[in-house]
Write a structure and sequence with these properties.
- There is one protein chain.
- The chain is an all-beta fold.
- The protein is built from no helices and 8 strands.
- The relative contact order is 0.36.
Amino acid sequence: AFQVTCTPGIPYDVDLDPGLNPDPMFRNMIGPSGNPPLQYQLYVASDHVIPWGMEGPGPGGMSEQGVGSGSADNFVVYGEIPSQAGPFGGGAAGGSGGTYTDTVTITVTF
């Protein structure tokens, strides 16, 4: 979750970029050397239907809009790691546990 505070009455857009390691369908976390990436996605709602951002490479997502109130507006980011062959799903891709990371940048345009 994060907060945006903007001048009252000023409209703004909030977007999350695809991260450092996107592919055509998912964001990817990179883990220990030699392991395949761990696919994941970030969504605007808990139903996991509409992904945040990803307007560049990947499926069309969306930004969130707001109008400044002078107080902090709260935004929640919902994540999902789909079932996959790889680090935690087994299968041909192999892999092992460990720390997997990615960096996603939040951009506020007003």
